[in-house]
Amino acid sequence: MTMLIAFYLFFPAVVILLCLKFPFLDKIGAVFVCYVAGALVGNSGGLPENAAVIQDALSGACVAVALPLLLFSMDVKAWFKTAGKAMLSMAGATISIVAVAGFGSAMLKGHVEESWKLAGLAIGVYTGGTPNMAAIRTALDVDPTTYVILHTYDTFISLVYIIFCITIAQRIFNWFLPRYRKTEIKNPGLGGDDVEDINSYPDMFEPEIIKKLMAAMLLSFLILGISVGLAGLFPKAVSTTVTILSITTLGIGASFITRVRHIKRTYSLGMYFILIFCLVVGSMANIRDLVHINMALLAYVSFCIFGSFLLHALFCRIFKIDADTFIITSISAICSPPFVPVVANALKNKEIILSGLTTGIIGYAIGNYLGISFAYIFKAVAG
């Protein structure tokens, strides 16, 4: 178990070194390499029996620690210039999944019992996240076997979707949608993280930078502790939403403190924790679960993810929403906020992180309402 934890914590450093040494790996992206490496380890048969406990704890902890670090160098004033488009794009993502999930459940009628319940689960998980899906499963009394199968297929198809988004999606949709116009209102003389890529890591080991990064880490842990404490005051069903909302709010608040905002390499340090997250998530994908495939449910999950993605793209085309905002709001809806920094880094655009986190939190908040209400609407319409 100790070896597994050490692998998760330190293998991303090996990946970074390889990306620095071999430019072609850098072009592929450290995130993608960590996903692939994790999947290979996870399906090698060498993981201990209780690895799932470590995987769940480490994946959640990495995101919780990374989010404040990623937010410390954000320029909130610049974000407000694009906030309207992000909200409009989120509305498009919501409309798209409701339409696609409803149409897909109608097509499954006669092939799957109570297909209207599948629509409720899909709308909940692809506007919010897994906590919404679990809550809706209980509310609609979905068959446990059906729920587990659907959740398994969602894990695999979502991984394919994420890989698409971090590799070629931006290049494809830049032909179809307007390009993102980065704001340029920062004062480079203040020492913030203006440029962030794989080459940002080597100078993190300078004594002065390490000293300030340690202070940033302590602040990140403080924010995490306060957020977990606040979440404990609320019902367990909404604790995840409250935790992420609190972390995001406090992280943004800290970015208004000049000394915090201008600590160098907080974004790079946060991305290191995200690389650990990608490695862990990749190792959680169990290919053996796909031995006995329910084609109807697999097709439904694939249709919901990629069908709503394409319909959302058409919506953004009509309303002239740029490609980066489209992709990040789609990720925040379909895969939930923890994956936002992963994709933003792949797009080489940290300005869109706030848009993704904000719309993702809104998705958490409305997912249960939308999933349950539209499930019953589809049931009534279908008779």
Descriptors:
mainly alpha; 383 residues; 2 domains
How would you sum up this structure, described in words?
This protein has 383 residues and is an all-alpha fold. It folds into 2 domains: 2-75 and 192-283, no CATH class; 78-181 and 287-382, no CATH class. The chain has 18 helices and no strands. It has helices at 2-21, 23-28, 30-42, 51-71, 76-79, 83-108, 115-127, 130-140, 144-167, 169-173, 207-231, 239-255, 258-261, 266-283, 295-318, 323-334, 340-346, 353-382. Helix 6 crosses helix 16 (323-334) and helix 11 packs antiparallel against helix 12 (239-255). Mean pLDDT is 86; it is low at 184-195.
Helix residue percentage: over 70%
Query: Low-confidence stretches at least 5 residues in length (pLDDT < 50)?
Result: 184-195
Rg computed from alpha carbons, rounded to a whole number of angstroms: 20 Å
H/I helix tally: 18
Order of helices and strands: HHHHHHHHHHHHHHHHHH
Q: Classify the secondary structure makeup into a structural class.
A: mainly alpha
Could you give a short account of the major beta sheet? none
pLDDT averaged over residues: 86
Which percent band covers the strand fraction? under 5%
Number of strands: 0
The domain count comes to 2
**Shape designation:** globular
SSE arrangement:
Layout: H1 2-21, H2 23-28, H3 30-42, H4 51-71, H5 76-79, H6 83-108, H7 115-127, H8 130-140, H9 144-167, H10 169-173, H11 207-231, H12 239-255, H13 258-261, H14 266-283, H15 295-318, H16 323-334, H17 340-346, H18 353-382
